[in-house]
Structure formats: C-alpha cells, structure tokens
Amino acid sequence: MLRFVGRVAIVTGAGNGLGKEYALAFGQRGASVVVNDLGGSTSGDGGPSSRPADEVVKIIKSHGGKAVADYNSVEDAKAIIQTAIDNFGRVDILVNNAGILRDKSFLNMTEQDWDLVHRIHLRSAYLLTHAAWPYMRKQNYGKVIFTTSTSGLYGNFGQANYSSAKMGLVGLSNTLSLEGAKYNITCNAIAPTAFSRLTQDLLPPDAEENLKPAFVMPLVLYLCHESCDATGSLFEVAGGWMGKVRLEKSSGAMVRRPNTPMTVEDVQANWNDIISFATPLYHLTQTDQVSHILDSIRKINNKDEEKGNEVFTQTYSYTSNQAILYALAVGCSLRQPNSLRFLYENHEQFSVLPTFAVIPCQSLSMSVMSSGKLGFDIDLLRILHGEQYVELFQPLPTSGTVTLKGKIVDVLDKGSGASIVYDVEMFDENEKLIALNQFVIFSVGSGGFGGKKTSEHQRPSLPAPKRKPDQICRETTTIDQAALYRLTGDSNPLHIDPSFATAAGFSRPILHGLCSFGYATRHVLHTYANDDSRLFKAIKVRFTKPVEPGQTIETHMWREGNRIFFEAKVPESNQTVLTGGYVDLHDVVLNTTTPGTAEENSKSSTSSGEGLKAKVAFDEINKRAKSQPDLVKKVGAVIVFDITKDGKVQQSWTIDGKKGAIYEGKPAEGTTAQVTITVADDDFVDLALGKANAPALFAKGKLKVKGNVMLAQKLSALFKDQAKL
Questions:
Q1: What average pLDDT does the chain have?
Q2: Backbone φ, ψ for residue 245 (5° rounding)
Q3: Is residue 602 part of a domain?
Q4: Do residues 260 and 362 both lie within one domain?
Q5: Is the pLDDT of residue 599 over 50?
Q6: Structural domain contains residue 605
Q7: Are residues 376 and 415 in the same domain?
Q8: Which residues of 654-688 are buried (b: 16+ CB within 10 A; e: fewer)?
Q9: Which of 162, 316, 389, 485 is flagged as catalytic?
Q10: pLDDT at 327 > cutoff 90
C-alpha cells in the first residue's frame, strides 16, 4: 500500500467533490492534510462558511489522521501555505483543485465573468504554487497538481472564460516541470470528468453513479507519491478510465523554397500536406519542436556553406514607366524645375533618380531574410528597416534587365534584437557593376544570442556638423503618397490599411521609410547638383521615426567638400525622421554610356557601322538620293540618326538637307544638328522598309527625338512610297 507518512499535502477546494475525495484519501494514507475551502457557491458568490472544511477535517481525524482546516480564499495564497508551515512545518504536495463557474455565451459574457474565473483558476494556481515553491526547492522535494479541463482541451460552448483559464494551467504545468526538475519538483496536469457541484447540471442522469470523484482520486494520489517520477504530463481521467494526452501535429510541409519569396499561393499548393496526419509528429519539449523546424530548414539550404557565404541571385526587369512611377512616388512634380527629365521618357536628358536602385534590390530582400542562414528565426512582422546605403558606379539604365547578387555580410546582437547587414550588388546586361545597396534590418526580439555588437562591413552613418544648416528644403507630401509609393513594389499593408497600422501601434498608416529617403535625396540633388543624377555617387541614412502621408519633409543640409550631410525632420510632429545621412557627389559628370574610360567611350561612339542593318539601309537611301538630289534638299534641315543596339549607340548618320548630303557620322564641322533621332537598328530598318510607322514608334518610346520635333516630319520625303527600299 502506497503511504504518505511524513508528507504534508495541501488540497484547495477540499470541502466537496474531487477535493474532498483527495483530502480524505491523503489523510487515510498517512499524510498531514491542509483542507482548504472558502465555503462559497459554485459561482464564487456566498460564504464564507467554515462548515465544508471542518466536516472533512473531522472525518480525517475520526480515522486517526492529521488534518487542519483553512478557510482562506485561494487568492490569499500565502496565508494557505503559511497554514501548512505553522501546523506541520513543511509543504510537500499541492493540489490546485479549487474552481468556480460563470458560464455564459461569449456575446453575453462580462469582463467581471471573465476576470473572476481567471483569477480563481489560473492566477490563484500561480499564487499558490509560487508561495509553495521556495519551501519545495529548499527541501529538494515537491509534487504539484494542476486541474485543467476537457473544456480547455476541446472547447465547450458558453465557457470561453473557463476553458481559456484551464488551458493556461497546462502551459504553467509544462513550464514549471522544466524549472522544477533540478530540485526534484514534479508538476502534472489532470483533466478530470466527475460528478460534482460544478458539473451536476452539465452531466446526464447516470453520471452520479458512473462518474464518481472516487474514480479520479487514485491517479492524483499516484502522481503525488514519491515513487512516481512523471512530470510535465497531462492526463484525462473519468469513470475509472485514464490516459496520457500528448501534443500531436501533422508531418506538415516545408512551404519555403530556396532563394524564393514565400507566397500565400505556396501555402495553398501545399495545404493537403500541411493538414495531413498520415505520419504524425510528437514533441515532448519545445527544444524538440525547434530542432525539427531547423532540421527542415537546413534541408532546403546548402549544408556545406557557412552562414553568410551564400550568394542569392535573381534578375529584375523594368521599363522607363517604372522609373517614372518611382519618381512620382518620391514627390517629383511638373511644378518643380528640371523634373521633366525624370518624368518624360523622350526628354533629351531623361534619366533615372539614383535612389531607384533600391527598388530592384529590395525585391531580393525576402529571399535573404527568409534564407535560414541567419542562425535564428525571423518574424517578418517584427522587422524594421534600420539603415540604407546606395552607391552608383555608373548612372542607372533607363530600362532593361539587371542581375542582383545579395549576400548576408553580418548578423549583430543588439540585445533587444538582431541587426542583419546584407549587401546587394546590381549588374547590367554586360555584367558590369552598376550599384551597391547595403540594407541594415533590425529584427525585434531576435537578440541575446551572444553575437558581436559591431561590424567592419557595415557602412557607417555620420553625424551632421554642429552648426546651423547651410540649406533647408521643405516639401509637403500628399495624403496619397504611401498609396502611390507602394506601387513601386513595397505593398506592406502597414502603409495603406488603417486597421493593420493600428495593430502595429500607429494611429494611421505611415509613409515608407524609403519614400522619405527618396524625398531627401531629391532635395540634395536639386540644391547641390542642379538635379543632375550623373553627379550622384553614394548615400547613407538611418531611419529613426515614421512620416505620415500629408506631413512635410524638411531636409537640413550641410556641405563639406563633395559630401553633403543631411537630416530630415517633420515640422508637424517636431521629430527627426532621418539621421546620420550624407550624399557624396562627383566632381564631374559621370560618363553616360558605358562605365569604361573616356577613351573607350569615345571609341564606342565613333565605331564603324559595320554589322548594323542600318548601314545597308543608309547606303541604299544615299544611293537613291544621289540620283535624286532634290529629295534630300526637301528635308531642309540637319537631322542626325543615332542607331542603337542593345540599348547603346553604335553609329550615327547625318542627313544634311541644306547641302543635300547623307553621310556616316556626326555633322561635319561648322554644321549643327537641328534634330537628333535615336532608334534601334531593327526599328530603323522597319521604318525604311515601310513596315513601321514613325509616330507609332515614337508613342511606344522606341523612337526618341531631341530638338525641333516638327522638322523631323520633313523626313517623310525620304520614306514615302517611292523611296522605299
């Protein structure tokens, strides 16, 4: 017979039902018992009354046992534990059994109904166990029972308060079983079904006979006996049947793919595997669960590569329309001087804002962040853009396909989070480096892993000079600014959805940090470079506070040589939103063709037209023009054709309507081109053959005209039916 001689047991709610059964059994088997019962009703009202506890104590003593009554509410936990210490000098066993019901449908439940049930079931179990814990640790022995419920395990209509509190007890038991193991303290949870005051209105008529508390008691006593080493377990028990409950999950599916952003459609495609229990998984501890996930992640990554060594590669294609959309998104307007060069693809100086370089590179961010190469899991809802660096090695193409190569260069432990530093290089179609982006992303809650605090690879931000700014540029954003900027590719609902913004702690949707970044860069370029993006070399900035759409961005600038320091403020909130910023400018304009030497670029622009189809066409046109001299003179203007291939000018031809001549190359010395037409080799041939229409090519952006557009119309004399090749 299992005995409890020398042990002290505290049973709460021991005046009736299950608690009474436990107390009597402990007393019968030699334990000293603290019989706790407030003497209230099942709803927590009424009482207190000493009668229930006194009657149980009287029975235990009548059989030669040791017991003392305690009439405290379980919310007076320290007093209950002190009763055991004052009367028996120790506490070995704590059975958290007391409880009440306040059953109502969720809609009709009041905060008082919710709070009272949680206080009695969950909070009081915490208070009691917390008060007993030091004694159990000191004596290196303890047995704790938490009473959960099948209502918590499976749910039950009208018991949202009760079921949630009961599941909280399961988590408490699981955690304390880990913390108590070192001190020989076991913690287990039981989910009993028995006839009692709490359940008599819920169970069928024959329950009183078949679901007696006496059929639950043996499990509780065994779990509390020194011979039982079970801990961290959950048991269901009813009518003499008892069984252990464990967490089971489906084998699941790894939805992520290497170097590819994960999408909702990926979840949809793998749904059947996600919910399949064909080969269920069981985990005894959280460590098991984390290990399983990490093992799955490692399978989709290269096991031979160390953290940070993998290069993520993808291509990104864009048109001039996307570059123009970006310019509009960061505040470019026709009201501003020189803005047409960023908004009109046929402008003679059409160019791309330098900070557009972040758009292709940001598309690689998700692949980097979800790579599994960081050494910890990242919650994408808890990441912040900390800093940004952009350096251009040649002006950005106005359209084309670029190759992106990204690499994690460092992961820094900042205590409250982790800073991930990663570089993305951008290459043109000839594999020449166009730009370098460095992103610094802060992952909230991912710190504390013992990593280094600083990185020699991180481009530093720099403080502004301690003097009044040399220049200040102010510009008010529109209420639709974030809605417009998100069309460039960053569709985070934080910037458009009020409910999402509220959940994230903002009063309303905020502007993208990179949009504010684009505004500040424009202000610097306008103030110190006359809006010439070719003078841009590099920019660094730190994001400190958000901007709300409709607020003003005020950029303070200080010039020291070719470095422009800047900060951005919002006057409406009196907050500094961008700090540590600087823009480096070139002394002279960058070459706008290839990023080679001036000599190489000169050779490129004067190379022979051999290999171009246009040469054949111009030779034929010239041949016919010589037999009809007046045909060229009808043009009446000097027009230059720049013929391109793969986006670069390969050769030029001049049609000199004043002299009646057509020749290869730029206009002769002393002659000025009145119109320059830039067109691809194939498109020019189609134009000469009559297969293409010049206005149509112009509308599609395939034919660009610099100079007097009206004079270009006189070329029709060379391309009308009788002049076709």
A1: 84
A2: -110, 135
A3: no
A4: no
A5: no
A6: no
A7: yes
A8: bbbbeebbbeeebbeeeeebbbbbbbbbbbbbbbb
A9: 162
A10: yes
Same domain (yes/no): 18, 45: yes
Average pLDDT of the segment spanning 620-647: 80
Residue whose tokens read 């359209």: 399
Q: What is the percentage of the chain residues whose pLDDT exceeds 70?
A: 85
Name the region of 226 (left: φ>0; alpha: ψ -120 to 50; beta: rest).
alpha
Range list of H helices, 300-419: 320-329, 340-343, 358-362, 365-369
Do 332 and 470 belong to one domain? yes
Are 534 and 518 contained in the same domain? yes
> What's the total number of domains in the chain?
4
- The confidence score (pLDDT) of residue 446 equals 72
pTM of the prediction? 0.46
Find the mean pLDDT for residues 647-670. Answer: 84
422 is catalytic: no
Q: Residue 317 belongs to what H/E stretch?
A: strand 311-318
pLDDT tens readout for residues 546-590 = 999 999 999 999 999 999 999 999 999 999 999 999 999 987 544
Q: Two tokens at 123?
A: 């909070």
307 touches 301 (CB < 8 A): no
CB atoms within 10 A of CB 378: 19
Pairing of strands 32-36, 8-11: parallel
What's the whole-number mean pLDDT along residues 151-158? 88
Q: What is the span of the domain harbouring residue 263?
A: 251-279+287-300
What does each C-alpha distance from 471 to 287, 468, 474, 541, 568 come to in angstroms?
A: 57, 9, 10, 18, 12
Question: How many angstroms separate the CA atoms of 320 and 701, rounded?
Answer: 9
On whether both 46 and 122 belong to a single domain, the answer is yes
Q: Is residue 606 part of a domain?
A: no
Please tell me whether residues 393 and 541 are part of one structural domain.
yes
Handedness of CA 92, 96, 97, 98 (dihedral sign): positive
Q: Does some domain include residue 594?
A: no
Structure confidence at residue 376 (pLDDT): 53
